[in-house]
Amino acid sequence: MVHIIPLSVARRRPGNTAQGTGSSPAGGASQQPDSYWQEVAERYEQLISQQQAFDTEVAARKLNGEIAQAEADAVANAPADGAGLHEGMYGQVDPHTGRVLQTGRFDTLFKGFLSQVPPELHPGLSARKETLRTEGAWRMAAQQLQRRKDYERAQVDTALRTNAIAIGKAHPDDHVTFEAARQDGLDLIDKMGVDPGIRQQLAKDWHSTAAKARFEALISRDPKRALAIFGVGTPAAGSGAMGDSAQAAGNSFVEGPRMAPGKKAASARRLRTNA
Hints:
mainly alpha
């Protein structure tokens, strides 16, 4: 590449004055200017390199901003479960060879950005491309995984609420309906992509929720029977039929929620009011 060296760079160095022909060795008059202009050219190349490095960094920061915006748009427009978020943004890369198998939005953005900057900045930006792809791919993969977790949790929460409502509307003695709704919730929880400890806690919470929904159904239908299950409001002696009924109810709700004494007393007071 041929450059025209500016006068500000090619100014004459102090003390570098032309010497008389009588005081210079043979050939000195031609060698010294060549050495001087070589130094000037090197200095100019250094200056150009410094400016290009600076301009490349400025352009790279602008590129990073456009990539961040593109990622935000991709996340905002992704489906609820995050499917395709990573590949859509950064494509696919062979993990063994590093060869790009499928381009993504990143490649289109990068190509368009290069067309807007001076050609001398292309090498510096192109050298950063695969590093930018790798870093961005990790970000999008994390976003996609989190989206999937949130999606599964939302689906499970919706299903469990629906099942709890079904249990609450069913007859409290309809054991088949209760078990079917409860097991349906457990089956869905078991298929979630979460840690075993989290899955176990979700199942435990669902057991309690299902039992609570069933017991609340009993409260709304037969408050006196519910009082008997709590061990309060026991019928007077001689009412054998009522006693048998309470015992049967207790057996039927043996898997019901276990309440703390304070909560149990509060529920009993509410039952007395309903009764």
